[in-house]
Amino acid sequence: VGETGRVGGFNRRMIGHGALAEKALMPVLPPQSEFPYTIRIVSETMASNGSSSMGSACASSLALMDAGVPIQTPVAGIASGLMMESKEKYALLTDIQGPEDEHGDMDFKVAGTRTGITAIQMDVKVNAVPLKILREALEKARRARLQILDVMEKEIAAPRPEISPYAPKILTMLIKPDQIGMVIGSGGKVINEIREKTSTEIEIEDDGTVYITGFGTGPGEAKKIIEGITKEYRRGERAEGVVVKIVDFGAFVRLGSNTEGLVHISEISGTRIASVRDVLKEGQIVPVVVKDIKDGKISLSIKEADPHFINR
User: Fold this and answer.
1) Residue ranges of the chain that CATH labels 2.40.50.140
2) How many Cβ atoms are within 10 Å of 32's Cβ, its own excluded?
3) What does the alpha-carbon distance between residue 200 and residue 185 come to, in Å, rounded to a whole number?
4) Rounded distance, CA 217 to CA 169, Å?
5) What is the pLDDT of residue 13?
6) Superfamily of domain 238-311
7) What's the pLDDT at 308?
8) Mean pLDDT of the chain
9) Exposed, middle or buried, 82 (CB in 10 Å: 0-12/13-18/19+)?
10) CATH architecture of 12-155
11) Is residue 309 predicted with pLDDT exceeding 90?
12) Which of 53, 66, 140, 253 minimizes the number of CB atoms within 10 Å of its CB?
């Protein structure tokens, strides 16, 4: 807050107002699994003649949406005041300024969305505030909050679909803990190859959470590679694979980047073939169906995927 005072760190007022604004915004922030970024908001109040915490809540909502942070809904806040002579003779004030705060009997801050309150704080200078007055104050604060949200949403109604192009893109995915070694590889060979190929940074937690950071299309490409490495195929699943080795009794086909299965000679065609090499060649892309999985070994079938494939 840009007010006259000693030069130094934050004072109690700054800390308290910042904590209130933060509390108002926390309920609408996305979970870490959806938005794994550290969020830091700096609210610089150039003049203090009203509620800096409620102003910060409104401005921070706009800033978050403008930055592409997928908050659930905007938050706005308002400070209400009270001049009370008795339970029957009083006046409620909306959006109080400095003198009204100083000479009034109540500073009542309420922040929230269109559907509810996310933060509330009240300072009073009287022994008690009747419930009737509190109900009126909350209703006035609700109406004021909706009016402020109308103004805010005319400028930006929802978070931008993408974060700033100057910010790194962070993607998350979850793999099984026993698949971590597959992604890392011996001595980090696999993960380092992915990093180099996609120009990304990749971190893997012990629970299998993978964080991929980079710019442009790199994170998406890295995620696709990891999905290929960790994909677990199921019986009956259709896929395309590359013939990597031909033997007398069939052909080995690579699925994705880390899985191989055998197409037995009897599963290549519906008609008898004399030699696998007569109909298939290494490097050829073939359609397959996962016929069976036993003891980690995958049996594939070309004829079930496309009975006429080798005759084309």
Assistant:
1) 238-311
2) 11
3) 17
4) 9
5) 66
6) Nucleic acid-binding proteins (2.40.50.140)
7) 84
8) 89
9) buried
10) 2-Layer Sandwich (3.30)
11) no
12) 66
